[in-house]
Design brief:
13-stranded antiparallel β-sheet; 188 residues; 2 domains; mainly beta; flat
């Protein structure tokens, strides 16, 4: 285990994130490599509601995980991969079933969301995708799965990026060029 400095209160948190000591609402652990982890109990129930991880010790967390509904499970995660202070990925479990239902991405790290993927019926498969593939601030690709079969029923794209959709596909999988090949839901 790494050495850390947490003002002597690190022993009050057990492995499940429960504050067994009952006296700290915020614990910050600083490791010898400079990284820091902050654990916060916002509702004073002795369970961690927010965990912020600063991997490089610069005072700005690159990962923040939160339990927003008090069920002791993470339902929101925010990541800043390039450490510029702006979220690059936000993942949310909107119905609190333990699975991510919405992801928002800033793939080029310009501070604007350029891809949104949602699972609106909570079946574990994406239902909607909106993407700005050339990062100009306008969506170039949209896909929707209306019959919830795991394949997009409508795909609209602006392949020349002029702001006007030039390709529209809808219907069965035979008429949808994305259904059998590359998934429009691929975010990375």
């Amino acid at each position: 285990m790494s050495e850390y400095d947490d003002s002597g209160h690190g022993d009050s948190w057990d492995g499940s994130g429960h504050d067994t000591g009952g006296h700290d609402d915020v614990i910050v652990a600083e490791y010898t490599d400079g990284s820091q982890v902050a654990v916060v109990d916002t509702n004073h129930d002795h369970y961690a509601d927010l965990v912020a991880v600063d991997h490089d010790g610069d005072g700005h967390p690159e990962e923040v995980d939160a339990d927003t509904d008090g069920d002791h499970r993470i339902d929101t995660a925010v990541y800043d991969y390039n450490e510029d202070g702006h979220p690059d990925e936000i993942a949310v479990d909107r119905n609190h079933d333990g699975r991510i239902d919405e992801i928002e991405l800033d793939r080029n790290h310009d501070g604007r969301v350029d891809t949104i993927v949602t699972d609106d019926n909570y079946d574990g498969r994406p239902d909607h995708l909106i993407a700005d593939t050339n990062f100009d601030g306008r969506p170039d690709l949209a896909a929707v799965d209306t019959d919830e079969d795991g394949r997009p029923d409508a795909v609209v794209s602006d392949s020349n990026h002029d702001g006007t959709p030039d390709t529209v596909y809808y219907g069965d999988s035979d008429s949808n060029p994305l259904a059998g090949g590359a998934s429009p839901y691929a975010t990375h």
